[in-house]
Amino acid sequence: MSIFEALVLGVVQGLAEYLPISSSGHLEVFREILGLDLTGAESLQFDVMLHVATVLSTIVILWREFVPLCKSFFTFKRDDNFTYVCKILVSCIPIAIVGVFFKDTIESFFGRDLTLVGVCLCITAALLAFSYFFRTRPYDANRLTGNVYRPRNISYIDAFIIGCSQAVAVLPGLSRSGTTIATGLLIGNKREQVAQFSFFMVIIPILGEALLDVKKMLGDDVVAGAADTAVGLLPLLVGFIAAFIVGCLACKWMLSIVKKGKLVWFAVYCLIVGIICIAKGFNLF
Questions:
Q1: Which residues sit opposite 189 in a β-bridge?
Q2: What pLDDT score was predicted for residue 191?
Q3: N or C: which end of the chain has fewer CB within 10 A?
Q4: Bridge-partner residues for 140, per DSSP?
């Protein structure tokens, strides 16, 4: 892998991890564009670095919220922050089950098929569009009569439902942030809370996935060829820095976008890219 290729993939990861356009799907698209055919060790090494970079960007951007959560949870302080962390842990149950018991099966069954990526991007587009056009109206404090919708805080049940959507989003092309945010909006959670919860809830699964990848790298088959297949320190560093810096910018941008309710434009984008991927997968051009 060249430095330029590492830079491009790092930028793609930083953007697509937070914007609802699927990081896994876009990484496959750009690997196809760049003509990259990474071996097992190379792919695992690079993916681990990119995942860690995006986790760090989340912590940096949401530092003021992240530190009180950690203090309350690790000191067992029974306040709202402790409850919030418990909801995050509940949301991680579905993805933990999928990651521990079905990750290898899913990867071997679906592989890295560009057609599948296109189909899943179209599904992401449909979900984003549905959450935009059929979402309930925000609460109007001036209306004193009638059935007025009041967006609610995220409950334990809501957290589990959002977590189930995250588990489904392991498929390449299904946006993790798009799926979880759209699900939260559809079940009636507050817009200003959904994006932040979505970004926090992904920290544990990403770190868990990175640990599983490290474990896989330490396997006999990978270690046997590690000396010949390592990506190289400089490309790893370039990819990490690019993913971190762009991830910080994308995280702040996405928080603003969700508050303004502008997700529908990403639905249009995902639909276009999805159709192109399907056409490419069937060798239509």
A1: 152
A2: 82
A3: C
A4: none
| Both tokens assigned to 65 | 């919220």
Strand blocks (E) in the chain: none
- As a whole number of Å, the end-to-end CA separation of the chain is 27
What is the rounded distance in angstroms from the CA atom of residue 39 to the CA atom of residue 67? 38
CA distances from 42 to 6, 234, 252 (A): 11, 13, 30
| The one-letter amino acid at 183 | T
Query: What is residue 39's predicted lDDT score, i.e. its pLDDT?
Result: 64
Rounded CA separation 167/173 (Å): 13
Question: What is the DSSP code string of 54-113?
Answer: HHHHHHHHTHHHHHHHHHHHHTT--SHHHHHHHHHHHHTHHHHHHHHHTHHHHHHHHTT-
- Helix or strand (DSSP H, E) at 38: none
Alpha-carbon distances of 119 from 32, 38, 109, 235, rounded to whole Å: 16, 23, 16, 31
Residue numbers in the chain where pLDDT is lower than 70: 39-41, 107-112, 135-150, 217-230, 285
Check residue 40 and report its DSSP letter: H
Token look-up 């071997």 returns: 108
Residue 61, token pair as written in the block: 């951007």
On the 0-12 / 13-18 / 19+ scale of CB atoms within 10 A, 233 is exposed
Question: Is residue 271 within 8 Å of residue 120, measured between CB atoms?
Answer: no
Name the pTM for this structure.
Answer: 0.85
Can you say how many angstroms the Cα of residue 33 is from the centroid of all Cα atoms in its chain?
Answer: 22
